[in-house]
Write a structure and sequence with these properties.
Rossmann fold; five-stranded parallel β-sheet; 308 residues; 10 helices; 32% helix; alpha/beta
């Protein structure tokens, strides 16, 4: 198997050398692509000696081979380890200002990213959003470990142990034989929660991240199915996959209409949405305001449709 190992500029870059050794000892051909920042921690000579392959880290190297496209096309697997907060952000936005960015945009194979950063950076809202976006696109982002960080700091954000990264990656690759088993099949999957309007700004709804439905949609798409994902309110971004069409809904009635329309003639229906059982019997056209007498409105509920 031909593996591209992207190494970004974190102190954990030295541990990526151990990951490289594990992969080569398993008989794989590994091409290391370090960023300029990564070379501040581990030099190019080390990567070439351990991999037995030439190391490129600039988009304009090996231009005659169109290397920035060739690397992604020829790879069977791409691993970014360590993946810094900066590299996660660049990958999530599709930024291609270095060789790794170009490889990620051209690769159509499994991509694994192993983050390593300080706890505050991992827990920052921007990083969380970037990770959710990447996972929604099918990138396997490994959870960082908890432990000693740079200096005296301790917390979540530590680079996972190389053998753990490699074992998770091999487990991911065992899924590939299922690809194609749903070729030609058309599947409808619902995800997320429904929201029932109380007034123009308030609603009754279920807490739902949408993660289960999105994971099911990605698994079906990777197995070759054409997927229609009916998405309610979700904490994660809808998946971006060529085999997945996303239909956005809000209420239970919207969900019912969408399911009846899109499931007609399909091969399978998976209901993973969190559907509200009740809704206000009457929604107001204007925002319900507080009263000076401290009273609260009486809300009469009615059952929603049984979509399933």
């Amino acid at each position: 198997m031909r593996i591209v190992l992207g190494v970004t500029g974190g102190i954990a870059a030295y541990k990526a050398a151990l990951l490289l050794r594990l992969m080569t000892e398993d008989g794989h051909e590994v091409h290391v692509v370090p960023t300029n920042s990564a070379l501040n921690f581990v030099g190019k000579a080390t990567w070439e000696a351990l991999s037995g392959q030439p190391v490129y880290n600039d988009t304009f190297e090996a231009v005659e081979e169109v290397n920035h496209v060739l690397q992604g096309r020829q790879a069977d697997l791409v691993i970014i380890a360590p993946a810094t907060a900066n590299s996660l952000a660049k990958a999530a936005t599709g930024l291609a200002d270095d060789l790794i960015g170009n490889i990620l945009l051209t690769a159509t194979v499994p991509v694994v990213m192993a983050p390593a950063m300080h706890t505050e950076m991992w827990e920052n809202a921007a990083t969380k959003a970037n990770v959710a976006t990447l996972r929604g696109r099918g990138v396997h982002v490994i959870e960082p470990a908890v432990g000693r960080l740079t200096g005296v700091d301790t917390g979540k954000g530590r680079f996972p142990e190389p053998d753990d990264i490699w074992s998770q990656t091999k487990a991911l690759l065992t899924e590939t034989p299922s690809q194609g088993k749903l070729e030609g099949k058309r599947v409808v999957i619902s995800a997320g929660g429904t929201r029932e309007a109380l007034d123009p700004v308030r609603y009754l709804g279920n807490r739902s991240s949408g993660k289960q439905g999105v994971a099911l949609a990605l698994a079906a798409a990777r197995a070759g199915a054409d997927v229609t994902l009916i998405a309610g309110a979700m904490d994660i971004a809808p998946p971006q996959h060529q085999n997945i069409a996303v239909v956005s809904i809000e209420s239970t009635r919207d969900l019912l209409d969408a399911v009846l329309h899109h499931a007609e003639g399909k091969d399978g229906l998976i209901m993973a949405a969190a559907v509200a059982d009740f809704r206000p019997a009457a929604a107001t056209d204007e925002k319900i305001k507080k009263q000076d007498d401290n009273s609260a409105p009486t809300i009469v509920l009615e059952q929603t449709e049984d979509v399933l």
